[in-house]
Specification:
heterodimer; A: about 160 residues; globular; B: mainly beta; Rossmann fold; 2 domains; 5 helices; about 10% helix
Chain lengths: ~160, ~450
């Protein structure tokens, strides 16, 4: 009984941690700057936000997600040597091959916003993993919402 | 087939066991002289009737001395499993057998088999000598007391399973009037590890799950394998070219790999043309994905679709004249057919939900697909003009149908729903089902398994 309860609590904590990463990554000030190297992936995650989320079967940049990419563009402007790969992903509710193409379209959509924000396109690679590398492992809408994403990864 | 014409199976090449990829000495087959009156040509049983009424067939152990007895028993068990798993045959309970295997191999007493309800009888004898097998096999029609088939196979002892599959195919063809699918293999993606960090390796096995081995080491992900019509090569998608998704050609015998083409973006969903000379694939440039065909000799590519939308999962018709594919050009995913040259695109799917992963039956009469929406997935078939849609299986998640070479059976993979936020309860497994929607069965694999592709007949 005790272990089961512990398991449930741990699962909730994990979920909470995930959504923090997704939603608050850009809102946390520069509090951890002492240990985080400017221009690193950790810097991007902690101070800018490394990902944007999408609606089901859509690669349109949501209005509430666009500011993350605009901040990323500004951040890349401050670190002109940084090159990134934008990785497109989908939820599990589709077929593998279509989702590979959909993830690529999401990565491209995110890249387009970065380029519009002044980043030289040569600094940005795109790739898709479709539904094959989920961020959240549940089979529910909360997990799928986190998995429909484009993640910017410093190379 | 005219019974007077010897049923000579051509020289059969059999792959050696593991790793080396050498081609073993062949399995040879020669006709046996009849022990009784031979039957008239043609199928004994109408296959449409057989669908609801499996043919009772008696399969005693093949007779033999020493090692031959053991091999004879093993071969009989493989034949029995093949026929039973097809759903079209009902092996008669061995407990009921009256005549011994040894005696039946000499001269069947048809009354003994008739009385226990056998309609067909399989007898045979195995001689093992110096690592070589000689397997004599006869198929009998019990009621008219006639021999339908008599064949002797010779092969290295290691290939005994192959002989069992060849015999199973002969039985299937003689009793049902169309080719079998037992002497075939399946390549698929073996998946291990947590779902967010999966190791995906290509693996290959006989259609019954035996002779399993891995083809790639898992350093690079491997997805959507497909057989070359020779069954000796595979095309698949992999992240091995500096991590970029590429189409790779893989030679099963030698294990050598080669990246196909020099596409700037992502390439995926490769399938060989029926003549084996080209590969049709989907390539993503910019936001869209379009269908291209690449000539394997010249490596020249030709773009077949253009414009907005994601065009993926192309598949040639068996005569090579048309290509079916999956596109969201109309808003959501539907199936489209076009001429192999790229013109004449028409939509063929109009039911509820989204349609994907179309595969054309080797018989040409059906296209199998994945359909999803409304909370579930399904595997179905429709005619190439989109009419006659039938759903064969439904569930939480399933996709990726692939046809047996005779077009009568499909494999696909099923995924179960994760029951917690750590992905617990998730699994992915291959299943087979006949095109009438009956006889769904799990196909055994040592790990989670996705993306099955069924080979052509190996001989």
């Amino acid at each position: 009984m005790k272990t089961r309860l512990f398991g449930a609590v741990a699962a909730v904590a994990l979920l909470a941690a995930c959504s923090n990463t997704d939603q608050n990554a850009g809102a946390t000030g520069a509090g951890g700057a002492g240990t985080i190297r400017p221009g690193s992936q950790e810097d991007l995650v902690a101070n800018v936000g490394d990902r944007v989320l999408f609606a089901f079967d859509s690669s349109a940049i949501r209005p509430d997600q666009r500011p993350v990419l605009e901040r990323q563009a500004g951040w890349m402007g401050r670190f002109p040597d940084v090159r990134v790969q934008v990785e497109g992903h989908t939820d599990e509710r589709g077929t593998r091959e279509y989702n590979l193409a959909l993830g690529q379209r999401r990565a491209n959509a995110a890249r387009d916003v970065l380029v519009a924000g002044g980043v030289n396109g040569a600094r940005i690679q795109t790739i898709s993993y479709g539904k094959d590398r989920p961020a959240a492992l549940g089979s529910d809408e909360a997990s799928w919402a986190q998995n429909r994403r484009a993640v910017t990864v410093v190379q | 087939m005219n019974p007077a014409t010897p049923f000579v199976l051509s020289r059969r090449r059999v792959l050696a066991g593991v790793g080396a990829g050498l081609v073993a000495p062949g399995v040879f087959a020669v006709p046996l002289p009849a022990l009784a009156q031979q039957a008239a040509p043609g199928a004994v049983i109408d296959i449409t009737r057989a669908r609801t009424d499996p043919i009772p067939v008696a399969i005693p152990d093949l007779a033999g001395g020493g090692d031959g007895a053991r091999v004879g028993r093993d071969i009989a068990r493989v034949i029995q499993a093949n026929l039973r798993n097809s759903g079209l045959f009902r092996p008669v309970d061995r407990q009921a057998f009256i005549q011994t295997a040894e005696s039946a191999a000499q001269t069947p007493r048809f009354q003994d088999w008739r009385v226990i309800g056998a309609q067909a009888l399989v007898t045979g004898r195995v001689v093992e000598q110096g690592g070589q097998l000689r397997v004599e096999f006869r198929l009998w029609d019990v009621l008219p007391e006639t021999q339908l088939q008599g064949t002797a196979f010779t092969a290295p002892a290691a290939n005994w399973r192959r002989i069992a599959h060849l015999i199973s195919d002969v039985i299937y063809e003689r009793l049902l009037g169309e080719k079998g699918y037992f002497d075939t293999r399946v390549v698929y993606v073996s998946e291990t590890g947590p779902r967010d960090r999966r190791t995906r390796r290509l693996a290959i096995m006989d259609q019954d799950g035996e002779n399993h081995r891995f083809l790639t080491d898992g350093r690079f992900g491997a997805l959507s394998p497909r057989f070359h019509p020779s069954a000796e090569r595979i095309a698949f998608m992999s992240y091995q070219d500096r991590g970029q998704p590429r189409v790779v050609l893989f030679d099963i015998g030698s294990g050598s790999q080669q990246v196909l083409g020099n596409f700037p973006g992502m390439t995926l969903s490769p399938r060989f043309s029926p003549d084996g000379r080209s590969v049709v694939l989907s390539a993503s440039r910019g936001g869209d994905a379009n269908i291209f065909v690449v000539d394997l000799a010249s490596r020249r590519e030709r773009q077949l679709t253009s414009g907005g939308g994601l065009d993926v999962s192309p598949c040639f018709s068996p005569d090579g004249s048309q290509i079916v594919f999956n596109s969201d050009r109309g808003g959501d995913q539907q199936l489209y057919v076009m001429d192999a040259g790229g013109g004449g695109v028409r939509r063929i799917s109009f039911g509820r939900g989204r349609y994907a992963t179309p595969v054309w039956s080797p018989r040409g009469d059906l296209i199998a697909f994945t359909r999803f929406g409304g909370g579930g997935f399904a595997i179905g078939v429709m005619r190439p003009d989109g009419s006659g849609e039938r759903i064969l299986s439904e569930g939480w998640a399933m996709e990726g149908p692939t046809f047996a070479p005779n077009g009568r059976v499909l494999m696909f993979y099923r995924e179960s729903r994760a029951t917690d936020s750590r992905g617990g309860g998730y699994s992915a497994r291959i299943a087979s089902i006949d095109i009438a929607g009956f006889n769904e069965r799990p196909v055994p694999t040592p790990t989670d398994a996705t993306d099955p592709a069924w080979s052509p007949l190996l001989s």
